[in-house]
Every structure is written in structure tokens, then in C-alpha cells.
Amino acid sequence: MPVLVITALVLALVIKTFVIQAFYIPSESMENTLLVNDRVLVNKLVYRVRDIERGDVVVFSGVESWDPEVQVEEPSNPVTAFARWVGVAFGVVPGEKDYIKRVIGVPGDVVKCCDATGRVTVNGVPLDEKSYLYPGDVPSDKEFTVTVPKGRLWVMGDHRSVSYDSRMHRSDAGGGTIPIDEVLGRAFVIVWPFSRATTLSIPDTFGQPALHAPPP
User: Fold this and answer.
1) Is 101 a catalytic residue?
2) Where are the chain's structural domains?
3) Is 99 left (phi over 0), alpha (psi -120 to 50) or beta?
4) What's this model's pTM, rounded to 2 decimal places?
5) Which residues form a coiled coil (predicted)?
6) Which residue is catalytic, options 29, 140, 163, 166?
7) Cβ(185)–Cβ(44) under 8 Å?
8) At what angle do helices 78-89 and 2-18 cross, to 10 degrees?
């Protein structure tokens, strides 16, 4: 039995590190797309075969200037620390340094808020965000214009009024953008609770042909 347990844990470690990992949603920043206590699966291989796309929901880690979405006391007991690691690996408990947001701008994009009707624009093209924006929220209550640097992303939560995202980090070294190298993978499905199980597809507004043209 101990051999089976060890084998299972090693297999879980390999899968968690290289293939798919479950993540626990700890905050309201992505409502109503993702609710507190949802569990999602994150594909860690997808960005080896394609670039990150606008509209992807991504999990990223290690942005030191961002406050944790959940405060977690580090266990002092090694057994408790190991149990917590297993819990994070299986999406049972949240990881303190993990964040989940929607990609709005990729390298080279000019992201702006807002146009004359209050919409976020990417490369001059307004986004129709009604399908995922939290009911009653405006696209942004903060004005900004940013050109996304090479190797970085502009990310925002769907629940804009409570999401601490790229908009709140304009004074950081990256101007609010996050390093692509810190992206762990793409959230592609809600697996828990079963009543909310669904895939996380890219909203249609990000498929507008004009959006993919170089900025003027």
C-alpha cells in the first residue's frame, strides 16, 4: 500500500508540473464566469503549441508586486506543509501566489479605456464584453492607455469593480502588464461543483478580424 501511495503522489506531481493542474477559485474577481469555490482545470501544455490569445482565461504566478488574492499562513509543521502542497496540487485549497484573469491584450496591442461609449478598445476596436462582464459593472472605472510590451500581457478580471488587475499596477515596472513566462496555463473547464461544469471558451468579441490588425 505505501508503494501505491508513493506512486500515486509521484504521478500526481508529474501531471501537476507538466500537463494539467486543478485550481481553486479563492476570490470574486472573475465572477460570474468563475465563482468562489469553483475548481477549474488548467492546461499547462497548450502554450507549447500555440500563442496565448486575447480572451483566454489564464493562471499566472510569481508577480511579486501583486497582493495575494487570498492570505495563507505558511505551515511550520512539515507534515502539514506537505498536506497543504497536496491540497493545492489537487485544487482543494488555494495557492497564495496564484492569480486567474482574462487576457485582454497581447504583445504589441494598444489597450485603451474608454471610448466614447465607455468600452475598452484593443487596437482601436471596441470590445463587446456583455457576455462575460459582471452584471452592473462598467468595463473600467479607471482610464488607461497602454501598449503591451514584448513578452507581456494585459489582464483583467471579469468582475471589474472588485478585481485588482493590470489597471491597479500601472506604476509597476511592467506598467501593469504581467510576464508571459509567469503564465502557468489556460483554464479550460470548470469541474466543480458539477452543477456548474462547463468549458471556458474565448468570447466571440475577441474573434473580430479588425482586432488582429496591427495598431494604427
Assistant:
1) yes
2) 2-212
3) beta
4) 0.82
5) none
6) 29
7) yes
8) 60
